[in-house]
Amino acid sequence: MFNSFSVRAFFWELNGKGFISIKPNNLMYNLFVANSKMEKRVQEYISIRQDIMEKLDKLKIEPRRTNGAHPLHGKLSGKWACWLGSNIRLIYEIDDKAKIIRIYSIGSHKIY
Predict the structure, then answer these.
(1) Secondary-structure breakdown of the chain: helix, strand, coil percentages, each rounded to the nearest 5
(2) Domain map (residue ranges) of the chain
(3) Cα 91 from Cα 42, distance rounded (Å)
(4) Which distant-in-sequence residues (6+ apart) come within 8 Å of 41 by Cβ?
(5) N or C terminus: which one in the chain shows less Cβ crowding within 10 Å?
(6) DSSP letters along 48-95, please?
(7) pLDDT tens digits in sequence order for the chain, 112 residues long
(8) In CATH, what number does 5-111 get?
């Protein structure tokens, strides 16, 4: 089950204003995490590096072009990866119909 509420609540705490919207909300994707463990890992990375939140906001606008996004192959076929900073990568899946980005993993290249 994917959970969006907690991630949104965490972003709200960080910037005090909620998500920063550059485009109307109906054109943006929503972020969902795979489970509570992944939610904690995303929160840990955001607390260490504030710029990750900005990169996630950009990803919500253009999930296939932002942050060096690229499709994955092999056992991860159908998923995408992008760069969030130095050695931090994000693996996610894009659902265009529901406008959802499902986050599966975050970490170094070892997550592949």
Answers:
(1) 40, 25, 30
(2) 5-111
(3) 12
(4) 106, 107
(5) N
(6) H-THHHHHHHHHHH-TTTGGG-EE--GGGTT-EEEEEETTEEEEEEEE
(7) 445 534 444 443 344 444 443 444 556 899 999 888 999 999 999 998 989 999 999 999 999 999 999 999 999 999 999 999 888 999 999 999 999 999 999 998 777 5
(8) 3.30.2310.20
